[in-house]
Specification:
The chain is of the alpha/beta class. 32% of the residues lie in helices and 17% in strands. The protein has helices at residues 9-13, 17-24, 28-41, 64-69, 90-100, 125-134, 156-176, 203-227, 258-262, 282-286, 320-329, 409-421, 425-429; strands at residues 58-59, 74-75, 79-84, 113-118, 148-152, 183-189, 230-235, 237-239, 277-279, 291-303, 331-342, 349-355, 358-361. The strands form 3 sheets. It has a 9-stranded mixed beta sheet, sandwiched between helices. Strand 4 (113-118), helix 6 and strand 5 form a beta-alpha-beta unit. The longest helix has 25 residues, at 203-227.
Length: 436
Amino acid sequence: MPPGNIQSVAELLLCTPQDLGRRCRLAPLETTAIFNAVCNNNRPELVSLADRPDEPDCCTTGDADLDAALAGGFRCGMLWEVFGEGGAGKTQLALQQALFVQLPVAEGGLAGSACYITINSSLHTPRLLQLMASHPLLSSESCSLDDIQTISSPTIPILISILSKLLPDLVSRRAQNQRLKPVKLVVIDALADLFFGSDKASTGTLVERSQNIVEIAGLLHSLASAHNLIVLALNTTTDIFQTPGDREQVGPGDELQYKQQSRWFGAAASIPGENSKEASLGLAWANQINARIMMSRTGRRRFLEQGPSSKRQKVSETSSADASDALQEDWTMIRRLSVVFSSVGPACSVDYIVSASGISTLSDGDPTPSHKAQTMFFSQLPASAPQAPIPLASQLAPLDVGSVQDLAQNDADDYFESYFDDIPDEFYDNGALGDS
């Protein structure tokens, strides 16, 4: 039996010098010498990107500004996380990427195929067909549903089995067949759904969850590194509840709490309210990923011209109620994509919309640094108010200047007058507004 029951170099390096000395009954100087000798004789070999210049390294997203925000697009060999609230466009981005990875290298793709792993849903093939028909860079000649392999994983053991057995076999089999496109993208939609069960949180369940997260992340990193592919994991959000104690300064001897640390890597803060939610799965998962992207909905809208037959031209031909509905349909929801951290690029933010042709950014230049972003909000009116958004002109973002000049301002003024006219006189007589 080997000394201390240590049978491999990996097991030796996982021990602390104190533990090694205790198990082998060695002096501290002897254990230090052993560690130095093992490390000097087992140096890892660093692989430079220059050693494989002919192999593509990035896959385009189909949008130049979004590619710039991601430092060239989705880079191979990395574990990317995209998190956000429902309706932010996470699945849209994943579906779009499953098509762009099939494009030839000359067009920004990887000439590969995708493996789409679903948790609580199925692959939305109608949306894929719509993207292929609507996006100018995609076509049935360069993209096909045959090159998107999908499988469902409703439980953690099934996902581990897929990542350790089925997926490596699929990647190797397609890599050896010259007639098939190699797997270059793996999507998990959405990883957090596996860990939100009915079991109550306890020390045991949290430890088990951390172990499962580390095991899953290790398998994903092995696939990404061994086969130089992109791993895209979708994640959900949790609410952040601010307390007065969270704003207090931390002294030299004070313990740094998780809430005080997570604001640097758990969420973005490019616009007001964006930092009210953070990525789920906690610190154990945050330590496993190479890049974190946040997608969120904002309170902003923009009028986008729809051509000569725009619905806005029909407003004068309809009633006032129908005109408000028609005007609202012309306004497109603006969403926000923020790179929280990345090992290949700086943190930045861009605005985007989701249309029939996929995700398109609205930035007019370079991506906005997170700490210098500007924003515009619309007034929050009661349900009975006209639905046309009313901008706060003093908070217009550069992208929205000129897009809110043609709003029905008169209708808004009429609404406010009618709103206050409906307040009964007793409300003022009883001093409900307070006495100064």
